[in-house]
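2024-03-11 09:14:02 INFO receiving multi-entity request
2024-03-11 09:14:02 INFO entity count = two
2024-03-11 09:14:03 INFO echoing inputs for audit
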Amino acid sequence: MGMIKSSAGSHNMERDTPPRSQPPKSAPDAPAPPKRARLRQDFASQKDLHVDPITRNLRKAFDEVAAEPLPEEFLDLLRQIDESAGGENER
Amino acid sequence: MSAEPVSVAARPMPAQGVADVRAGFVEAVPHLRLFARSLTRNFVEADDLVQETMLKALANIDRFEPGTRLRPWLFTIMRNTFYSDLRKRRREVQDVDGEHAARLVQAPRQDSSVDFEDFKQAFAQLHSDHREVLTLIGASGCSYEEAANICGCAVGTIKSRVNRARRRLEEIMNGAAGGAGADADQETPPSQDAIAGAW
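2024-03-11 09:21:47 INFO inference complete, emitting structure
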């Protein structure tokens, strides 16, 4: 497949070639300092108690989808990724 | 929309990082399925879109920067694929007037989930721009910046879309609870599948 180079900031809907992935502006997955992490957890649990109905229903929609079994086509794809990796490792 | 037969064997991936990509795919699948349903409002088309997205991502895995988040990249690929396919289909097929409207039949509801069913019906009536920002931010936990990158617009635009979407959703739920009142901005009325099934 031919690679069409596009600028990293461009998000034209017309393009078929997947864009380059974007680095996060901050590092959300980086571990927070323990104290701040605790405060954040407390805040999150407080927020959950008062979450609005729209957010609650959006999360419920996600939970429903996440609970569904994966279609066989997806499992096939994952198996092929495994096989592809296995083939590379044998070289 | 129909995904091509699955084949990644012809494009071996570098062994290093494959486990990460695989784990990222597994983690992303429910998010992708939900986003695909919000775009297509159809279960079957949504899963085809997820599969097509994953195949495109694998075929272009060299464009994924290690250390960046996989999920927003996959969302971007999915969105581009969806709108690209949509334009192709609009050129090929013209919808019969009233076909969708005729299928606006209210789905049977269970008392235990009336609120959620009302929500799903209202959500299906939103404009596609509103469905996608609520799904990305409210359901999948994307930041405003990530959603802006995915949708190709400014952060301020995403914020105002979210506000308008929430306001519109409340209006539909309060004003037309359980009804199929159309969103004035909506591009096409939701089908029965959209109301009953596409979350």
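2024-03-11 09:21:48 INFO post-check: The longest helix of chain B spans residues 18-40.
2024-03-11 09:21:48 INFO post-check: Chain B touches chain A through 70 residues (CB under 8 Å).
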